[in-house]
Amino acid sequence: MSKLPMLRGLILAIAITSPMCAFPQNSSPGDANFHLLPSHKPDRIILNLSENPLEEIGVNWRTDTTITVAHLEFAKATPGPEFRDQIQHLQALTETLVSQHDDEPVIHAKYHQVKLKGLEAGGKYVYRVGGGHSWSEWYQFTIPTDDKEVNFLYFGDVQNEVSSMFSRVIREAIINLPKMDFTVYAGDLINHESADFEWGGWFEAGQWIHASIPSMMTPGNHEFSKNPATLTPHWNTQFNLPANGPQGLEETTYEVNFPELKIISLDGEQIDESPSYRKAQMVWLRDILTNNPRKWTVVTFHYPVYATAPDRYHDKMIDFIRPILQEFNVDLAIQGHDHAYARGRAYEQDGKMDYKKGTVYVVSVAGPKMYEVKADDWMDRKAYGTQTYQWIQVKENILTFRTYTALGELYDSFEIQKNSDGENILINHIPNTPERL
Ligand SMILES: [Fe+2]
């Protein structure tokens, strides 16, 4: 008999006015994107990392507005169907999102979220979402063990033609690699921040993967409307990410802590656009990196510190973020935005650059939009026109980084070894294949 952890569900439901029609009046089953409209059946089901990923996990999903109260059932997974005799039942926090973009119809949807708490490290769980006669299938997920090893995927911008062109990349990663503990998206998940059908394409590309492996995402400029920079309401509504960063930057600036790995998301757009949010993030980042007890620290943000072409210089990241990464010896920065691949180090001291020390910076792109890459002193490896995925493993004193093309072929690899003084030694394992330029 399995012992089920005691969990507390979120039981807040936002008041509903009148239920809406299941689909907009100006949309019919013959429309190309009709299948992306909400229905009574849950869709866009996603797991998100919590700030304490060995004990908690976030779940989020969508229905149409006929579903005013939604539920999640979960249990410790069992070899057979007997888990259904040990189900815990939670009511979701429900909120409404009304969106409209260009010629898309006005879409009314309900988004539902639950934070599962009291989970056990190494535990395997099943869950389903819905209610009445409209339940999802049972999904299964695993909480990482407390053995100080973490494996995760990192994707650069997916952004364009996501359902059509990113799908093969994430699926190749899942087929080719060992089981990942989580996935990181480095911003620009879609192209138009509030285009609901684009978000539908993003969920379509990930499908059950998003519901089975938790992800964390940092927003890119394409998740914002302009003047002033305003995060799309889709973000906080459809994701269930940590809100442990500066006030006003909930679910965009936050930290996640594994036993020996701290992984941080910074809101790059607000670093670029807002002096007050930039300052708040700098203060917060310094604070959480001071007396940081974890062996490894990885940070993700959208605008890269070192660009992949000279005309793409990101001055705010150089001026304000690089000094903090250098001061606190952050091990790795995983970034997006430049639509090319580049990886290397560059440490600035008294106006001089040292390309043999400091944070390792990576830029990558997982979608099909490609920009030129120009050789630069900081780059150990680079690529043009190459959709990639990255596997990062943190285990004891070694961080191993591997970049694969969409074909599943190893394109770049290195290790960071931490010596007894806490200093990093980088060892390249670059495959003996030509650079794609
Ligand atoms: Fe971008």
Short description:
Strand 20 and strand 21 form a beta hairpin.
Overview of the structural elements:
By secondary structure, the protein is of the alpha+beta class. It folds into 2 domains: 34-142, Purple acid phosphatase-like, N-terminal (Immunoglobulin-like, Sandwich), CATH 2.60.40; 149-428, 4-Layer Sandwich (Purple Acid Phosphatase, chain A, domain 2). Helices cover 16% and strands 32% of the residues. It is built from 6 helices and 27 strands. The protein has helices spanning 162-176, 196-212, 233-238, 268-273, 275-289, 315-327; strands at 43-49, 57-63, 71-76, 88-91, 93-99, 107-116, 124-131, 134-135, 139-142, 149-155, 182-185, 215-217, 224-225, 230-231, 254-258, 261-265, 296-300, 332-335, 341-345, 347-349, 352-354, 360-363, 379-383, 388-395, 398-405, 410-418, 424-428. The strands form 6 sheets. Strands 12-11-10-24-25-26-27 form a 7-stranded mixed sheet. Strands 15-16-17-18-22-19-23 form a 7-stranded mixed sheet, with no helix packed on it. The model is unreliable at 1-22 (pLDDT under 50). The chain binds fe (ii) ion. Fe (ii) ion binds at residues 188, 220-222, 302, 337. Fe (ii) ion binds next to loops.
